[in-house]
Amino acid sequence: MKTSSFPLIHNRKAMVGALIVAFILLVAIAAPLLTTYDPSARVGRPHQAPSLDHWLGTTRIGQDVFARLIYGARTSLAVGFGAGLLITAVGTALGIIAGYRGGKVDEVISFFTNMVLVVPNLPLLLVLAAFIGQASPWVIALILGGTSWAWGARVTRAETLSVKQKDYVKSAEMMGEPRWRIMTFEIFPNLISIVGINFIGSVIFAIITQATLEFLGLGDPKVVSWGTMLYGAQKASALSVGAWWDILTPCFALAFLGIGLSLLNFAVDEIANPRLRTGNRLGRWSALIRSGEGRL
Amino acid sequence: MAFLLRRLCFYLAAFVAAATINFFLPRLMPGDPVQIMFSSAGAELPPESLQALKLTFGFVDGPLWQQYLTYLGSIFSGDLGRSIKYFPLPVTTVLGNALVWTAGLMGTATLVSFALGTFLGILAAWRRGSLFDVIVSVGAIFATSVPAVVTSLIVVFTFGFTLGWFPTGYAADPALDPAFSLTYFGSVIYHGLLPMLTLCAVLTGGFAVTMRNNMINLLGEDYIVMARAKGLSDTRVMLWYAARNALLPTVSSLAIAIGTVLGGSLVTEVVFNYPGLGNILYQAILARDYPVIQGQLLIMTATMLVANFVVDISYVLLDPRLKRA
Predict the structure, then answer these.
(1) Stretch B57-83: mean pLDDT
(2) Which residues of chain A lie closer than 8 angstroms to B36, CB-CB?
(3) Distance (Å, rounded) from C-alpha B292 to C-alpha A151?
């Protein structure tokens, strides 16, 4: 079998997924070059159909949908990756500590993990967001990080339990390495695939959830993001007045990004963890996706 | 029995945790918690009702622990306060009425997608690597990576608004009176079909993938080889030897899925303007009706816990090893 130092390049799923995500990232960065319209300003008549002037039409209050789409990608990606990072960091840290330390520490952490898992995530987020009021994207990212780490912690703990039995951990213990060093430099690097999958899964979850919260009117409507686009379109009854471009644009953008990230996740899982190729890969992956109600 | 008792205690603790969040949230926000909780009430609420509401939510004179106990007391006696938007209806009535529709929608969607997903998963695993397997697996990836709100919007746009095959709101024809009649039930089914199918589209993929992987892991077992060697028919080996055992872990994934179903049905109901919990909650968020918003967290948590407990029980029944433990 051919081995490569860049296995991701030789995996077709990874390539397609990475291309999709990179494309959206590029468009988000280059947004000011791609349109001259201000995404928040009224630049046309209300609910104009797509035309050469407005590639994807206009909203109920005459904003350019294309400009909102590409500027909105910035918010959605930033919140997705920011919250994803936070969720993964908390989950990984708690999982490794619980798994490695065992005993009372493990019991306490596992108890809280299971409790967070069993309280339904979206209703909890809705209550939090409702009290905060019009939550800015960063506040949403923060509360996502605070409430959605449980699945990652559980998976990481399980994996840590098996890694800590390995000889190199035992020998590090014999040599008297401090516990934090063993956890950071002996155990963590060997969990990198699990952490990577957890991260991409969390990014998907965060993007979907942010959009959902904003769609339900819990975001700040002045922010330009795919979620507030959905909210604005739904509030303007875009579907019943036939302004399909207003509502389908953010829909397809979210679906596109979701599929891209999922393909990437799927591929990372296959490459980083050959053991999983024998059949368990989909299960682990889908469990992660569904972890915190990734499918809202 | 000890296993179930332990689970029951854990669920009770989880429910109290959800109530604790409810209790502390308004108190942690900057400003006067009473003002925050009942800000939307304005001047319409009679003073004695406001007083009663304050009591329900633990806003009594006294130390924090006393307030907390007062709040827990009212929750466990089934008093979730009164809705401000639908005043003077109690929160339990508002949410209870809606829960019927949500439970119906969720229940059917879960059953249908679980049955369909499991069936697809069995076939995909049995013909691993075939075109059918590829279609099911890839289809499941795509279906599970699109947000429910997107799926719902696209479905309602296509079948509701563009093709006009299905209604785009309400649980039944508003012109009909609720009655035990064939027309009324027909109308309920006609109105519920599209949201139900949307939820199925959202859920089936996950069940199919779980079942497929469990099956694949089991197909290498010795007793499968043995069954084949005995010359049993393919269908018999597939269903009675492999699928039966693969179903066990799938049942436990059902418990996790319930949270997903809840979240999904919230969003789907808003898009389809279906009068379930999701829609009530949406209206409550718009009106900042905090007693209802808090009440839904408790009701949803309770629903999730009950569902988890049912799964625990069925697990004990399905897995003889747990009966002894």
Answers:
(1) 80
(2) 131
(3) 28
Chain A contact for B163, CB < 8 A?
A: no
Inter-chain residue contact B157 with A258, CB threshold 8 Å: no
In chain A, positions 210-239, which contact chain B (CB-CB < 8 Å)?
211-212, 215-218, 230, 234, 239
Q: Does B304 contact A283 at a Cβ distance shorter than 8 Å?
A: no
**Chain B contacts of A125, Cβ < 8 Å?**
none
ipTM, 2 dp: 0.81
Interface residue A289 vs chain B (CB under 8 A): yes
Q: In angstroms, rounded to a whole number, what is the distance separating the alpha carbons of residues A46 and A186?
A: 60
pTM above 0.90, yes or no: no
Return residues 207-236 of B near A (CB < 8 Å).
209-210, 212-214, 216-217
pLDDT digits (tens, 9 = 90+) for B207-238: 888 888 788 878 878 888 888 888 888 888 88
* Long-range own/partner contacts, residues B135-142 (CB < 8 A, 24 or more apart): B136/B208, B136/B212, B137/A282, B137/B209, B137/B212, B139/B205, B140/A282, B140/A286, B140/B204, B140/B205, B140/B206, B140/B208, B140/B209, B141/A259, B141/A262, B141/A263, B141/A266, B141/B205, B142/A259, B142/A262, B142/B205
| Chain segment B298-317, per-residue pLDDT in tens | 888 888 888 888 888 887 77
Residue in A281, A291, A295 closest to B148 by CB = A295
Contact at CB, A212 and B149, closer than 8 angstroms: yes
How many interface pairs between A and B have CB atoms less than 8 angstroms apart? 186
The answer to whether A8 and A266 have CB atoms below 8 angstroms apart is no
> What does the pLDDT look like over A70-116, one tens digit per residue?
899 999 999 999 999 999 999 999 999 999 988 899 999 999 888 88
Q: What is A187-199 written as a DSSP string?
A: IGGGGHHHHHHHH
Q: How far apart (Å, rounded) are the C-alpha atoms in residues A230 and A55?
A: 18
- SS3 state of residue A84: helix
